[in-house]
Amino acid sequence: MAMVRVKLDEERKLTEEERRQLDRAKELPVVYDEDSPECTPEMEAAFIAARRAKPYKGQPLTVYVSPDTAKEAERLGKDYGAVLGKLLDKAVKAYQEAL
Q1: Residues 58, 51 contacting (CB under 8 angstroms)
Q2: Cα–chain-centroid distance for residue 76?
Q3: Is-contact 51 79, C-beta < 8 A?
Q4: At residue 17, does pLDDT exceed 90?
Q5: Which of 85, 16, 20 is nearest to 54 (CA)?
Q6: What mean pLDDT do residues 40-66 have?
Q7: Is residue 28 over pLDDT 80?
Q8: Would you say residue 2 has pLDDT above 60?
Q9: Secondary element (H or E) of residue 87
Q10: What are the phi and psi torsion angles at 36 (to 5°)?
């Protein structure tokens, strides 16, 4: 299974203790158990497929947002467009209910 990498917020710097903890964690073995078994290639393929799947079919729409909002949205992951779509659905519903 591929290693997951996370980009840290560039504004927040790690403390020396946090860096030491990360360095020690890199040396620890991966431990599998019944709650967290090692993934088979089939399991990994299923997880990847589920991540890429669209929860529903929607109508394409172009929306322009501020650069700050675009930057924050991209931090949500590769599927940030789907997340923004869900947020927009909720916002429109809440707006209609408020009328």
Answers
A1: no
A2: 5
A3: yes
A4: yes
A5: 85
A6: 80
A7: yes
A8: no
A9: helix 80-98
A10: -140, 75
